[in-house]
Design a protein that fits this description.
Number of helices: 11
Oligomer: single chain
Number of domains: 2
Order of helices and strands: EEEHEEHEHEEHEHEHEHEHEHHHE
CATH topology of the largest domain: Rossmann fold
Structural class: alpha/beta
CATH superfamily of the largest domain: Response regulator
Number of strands: 14
Distance between the termini: 26 Å
Helix content: 25-40%
Length: 381
């Protein structure tokens, strides 16, 4: 697991008064406020995932403020600056610039690869570290920016594991591929396709939809005529659920493979009984296999009165990783935090990097992907 951080702290005067949980900020002359940026879709089809990410970061900040934080002998209070990128690459760059202008020190986000990649240049130019809890497109961390970090595996791991599962476990010979034309969906589908061909699968077709598509019957009717053993869908749950449901309505028997964007609690409601036909991967540990997952889940549900979607534990740990770097560097300056990040050795809710154990799910079946090795680990369910 690779983590890091960067620049720009806003110094204001404040203190923390813990009346009930959560804590509230009160002005006081001996505290320094450090702004923690967050960016994710808080509106649109992935808003439930973005809010989940925001909640994870918020919970960490509230806990840290309640416990009291001292860095370099100075009292520090964290403040969350959360912005809505709507899952749109253009809006993501506007949000990134706003967070820079508002003096965020690091930024946790963005949720999507398609927003993380364009925003990362702005953070890099400003010297602000970006830690994405979920961006899986390899390009995100291959741009040569020292400020970009992720807490999950990439599609270069996730795609091949799905292809190997199709070949070795499902014994598939043919596959139809469809993606949503985003950096995430298309990237995952392309990585899957490369591996599928390498292991001898015949790709009968590769079609493209959009991340706003809701009617897949035309493409699915064509795919039905191709009679593939499996279908690979590169996209998010908001479209993956209807895709699976419509495939079942058209009596297509093929199993549907998908990535972590589909592997959410919401997909069961969107797909209905067709969710049992979905096999999806997650680019990190499932909650029940996280070292401190159960404890985190209890605190999360108690605070927000709702279940965790997917990546809240990752944004939660990202905040603590930032604070760990602050403490080790004795500084809240971004350049000092950034310098401390490569040597991070932190055990959080996610535990430490390692191979994924066998996973289970009461919704869709899924595969676990390692965050620390170049090879994914496929769970047999």
């Amino acid at each position: 697991m690779r983590h890091s951080l960067n620049k720009r702290a806003q110094f204001t005067i404040s203190a923390v008064l813990c009346v009930t949980s959560p804590c509230v900020a009160r002005a006081a002359p001996d505290n320094i406020v450090v702004k923690i940026g967050h960016a994710a879709p808080l509106t649109g089809g992935s808003a439930h995932l973005g809010k989940d990410d925001e909640n994870g970061a918020r919970l960490a900040i509230e806990e840290i403020n309640a416990a009291g934080l001292t860095v370099g002998g100075k009292n520090v209070m964290l403040e969350l600056l959360s912005e809505d990128d709507a899952g749109d690459p253009r809006q993501a760059t506007q949000v990134a610039q706003k967070l820079v202008d508002d003096k965020a020190v690091p930024v946790i986000g963005h949720l999507n690869s398609g927003t993380s990649i364009p925003a990362s240049r702005i953070y890099n130019d400003a010297g602000i570290v970006e830690i994405s809890p979920s961006a899986t497109n390899p390009t995100y961390t291959k741009q040569g920016f020292k400020t970009t970090y992720r807490l999950v595996a990439t599609d270069a791991q996730q795609g091949p594991v799905l292809a190997d599962y199709a070949s070795k476990v499902l014994k598939a010979k043919t596959v139809a591929i469809i993606d949503d034309s985003t950096a995430y969906g298309q990237g995952l589908a392309n990585e899957f396709e490369k591996r599928a061909k390498a292991v001898g699968l015949t790709v009968v077709s590769h079609d493209a939809a959009t991340d706003k598509s809701i009617d897949f019957r035309g493409i699915l009717t064509k795919i039905k005529g191709e009679r593939p053993d499996v279908i690979m869908y590169g996209g998010m749950d908001a479209t993956g659920g209807p895709f699976a449901k419509q495939a079942t309505q058209l009596a297509i028997p093929a199993k549907i493979l998908a990535g972590d964007g589909v592997c959410t609690p919401k997909v069961a409601g969107l797909a209905g009984t067709a969710s049992k036909n979905i096999i999806c991967s997650i680019a990190g540990l499932p909650l029940e296999k996280m070292e401190r997952g159960k404890d985190f889940e209890k605190r999360y549900v108690a605070r927000f009165n709702k279940p965790i979607e997917v990546y809240a534990p990752f944004t939660y740990d990202a905040v603590y990783i930032i604070v760990d770097a602050m403490k080790r560097s004795g500084s809240i300056r971004a350049k000092d935090i950034l310098a401390a990040m490569p040597s991070t050795s932190y055990t959080g809710s996610l535990g430490r990097p390692g191979l994924m154990p066998k996973a289970t799910s009461n919704k869709a079946r899924y595969l676990s992907i390692s965050t620390s090795t170049e090879n994914g680990v496929c769970s047999t369910l």
